[in-house]
Amino acid sequence: MITAGIVGASGYTGGELIRLLLGHPHAEVTQVTSRAYAGQFIHAAHPHLRGGTPLRFIHPDALEPCNVLFLCLPHGVASREIDRFAALAPTIIDLSADFRLRDLARYERVYGQPHAAPQWVDRFVYGLPEVNREALRSASYASGVGCNATAVNLALLPFIRAGLLVRASAEVKVGSSEGGAEVNTGSHHPIRSGAVRVYKAAGHRHHAEVAQVLGDVPVQFAVTAIEMVRGVHVTAHVDLARPVAEKELWAAYRGAYAREPFVRLVAAKSGLHRLPEPRLVTGTNFCDIGWELDADDPAHGVIVAALDNLGKGAAGSAIQCMNLMRGLDECDGLRAFAAYP
Questions:
Q1: Looking at the structure, do residues 74 and 159 belong to the same domain, yes or no?
Q2: Are residues 134 and 175 in the same domain?
Q3: In 3D, which of 6, 140, 144, 2 has the Cα closest to residue 64?
Q4: Residue 162 binned pLDDT confidence (cut-offs 50, 70, 90)
Q5: CATH number of 41's domain
Q6: pLDDT tens for residues 73-95?
Q7: Residue 209 has pLDDT above 80, yes or no
Q8: What is the C-alpha to C-alpha distance for residues 164 and 249, in angstroms, rounded to an integer?
Q9: Residue 281: which CATH number?
Q10: Catalytic: which of 66, 72, 147, 287?
Q11: Is the Cα torsion angle 190, 194, 199, 201 positive or negative in sign?
Q12: pTM of the full structure
């Protein structure tokens, strides 16, 4: 069994990592850290995991060596302590944004401070398996992915690979488990019933990850927190280099994702669920993608994508990375489907 430690395990992503790893056939969580909850059982911070594990939180200073460390720390913390963490585990997956961006100047612009460990940046592989699978297989260190960036990147990547995308504009709707810190000034509670708040109309920090993956094609998005706890729902208007037919879109997306275990194409002509919905991926590592072409302008289309910000947008992707990095089946511990209705 792979021994896994989670640093900063009392937050949402830490809780999701624990939940998923409790069902992993080849990995075991052996230590979880929290300054605030040190000495208390896991269910003190994650009541839904009561009875799932006898583990208690430990202070970060008590962390011991293990096979894999997941870092769920505030941005800027992991990079300041990366030497200590690297001495404790040969495999590290950092769920913060500290090691996502290769361009140090862009990192400083986006996060407002110079990188604390620039010598480490090139040692981390950006943890999106659909883009960097082979690099992850031989990596010791992987970064997490921004949940909004992942939804936008996976939605638009086939157009980039086909050389079709001219520009895109996306509306990203998110739940309170992502937007809570900004929408509720630090609160970790769902937004009030009926509340809809645009909390980043332009220049969202995840945009830098989109540019890193998709290149210099103009892609902009706004982020709106809606009455939803978990989920990211993207509606992207795309301008294409030329008119395309429906079968060409299917060919582009199937060519990109036919062998991807966690990307599902949802573009039905009839039925109740013709396009992706966040509730159908809640608690899973799936990203659902669908589309419609503009009947009046076949060089314009609308792409819809949905994922769970704590699953495919964070903890799920991190475990997918771990599986690749440790030579396991990529899907281990991630085969669950959403509960519905």
A1: no
A2: no
A3: 6
A4: very high
A5: 3.40.50.720
A6: 999 999 999 999 999 999 999 99
A7: yes
A8: 10
A9: 3.30.360.10
A10: 147
A11: positive
A12: 0.93
